[in-house]
Every structure is written in C-alpha cells, then in structure tokens.
Amino acid sequence: MPDHLIRRAIVNDAATLSDLDHIACGNSNRRDFIRNAVESDRAWVVEISGEIIGYGVISHGFFGRSFIDLIYLAEPHRSSGHGPKLIAFLESQSQSSDLFTSTNESNSHMQHVLEKLGYERSGVIHNLDPDDPEIVYVKRSVRA
Known about the structure:
By secondary structure, the protein is of the alpha+beta class. The chain has helices at 14-20, 28-39, 82-92, 108-116; strands at residues 5-8, 43-48, 51-62, 65-73, 99-104, 120-125, 134-139.
C-alpha cells in the first residue's frame, strides 16, 4: 500500500472533496455539508502522492460526545486499508472518551470495519434514509 498522509482539509480542498464524492456530485446538501465541515475545521483528507483519495468528518456535539459524521474513500481505494487508518486517526481527534459513528444497514462492509476496530452497536435510527435504517456504533475509551 502506498504511503498516505492525513491532514486537515483547507478551504481550497472543498471543491475537490465534492468532486470526489459521488453523492455530492448531484446533491447540494452534501456539498454544503462538506464546505461547512472544511470551514469549521472538522474535515480531514487522505492523500496518496499528493492526490486526495478520501476524507473524514468529525464533530463534537453529539450529546456531549464526539461523532464521526462521515468517512468517504474514492471507489478505487476502498478495501485498501485507508478507511481503518482514517478512522483510527479520527479517534485521536475525539474530545470525549466515547466516540460514536453510524452507517446504513445496507453498508455491511462499513459495519464489518467498525466491528473489527472495536466498535459496538449502540442503537438504530429509522426514517433517515427510506428503507435503510442507520446503525449507531460506539467505541469506548478512545481518550483517557
């Protein structure tokens, strides 16, 4: 696997992230989310040889705890080990001892990754995406 760099996203990255993210390409809400995450210093990018291949967003206001809002990797880089490395990095940015995240019930790959990294199921939220409940996960004691 080529060396990667994880760094804080800068304002100039917002358009690149929106272009990279296939959901953002046709969804102004997702583009606004990306822009706001970058502008509020909550977004981190993954680069290989200077090319952005993915990003992650973390927030710190989920019932007083940190929450990984989004992990996105370009299709050719999925299942390459970069996702778990990005999640581990975001864990180091957590401002709470318990870190939460979520994924759709249909995203079995992400469920497997989270469970392999020590996350446990914490609940289910219905009615966010039609017919695809959101599974909430928690990892305890990520910060001492």
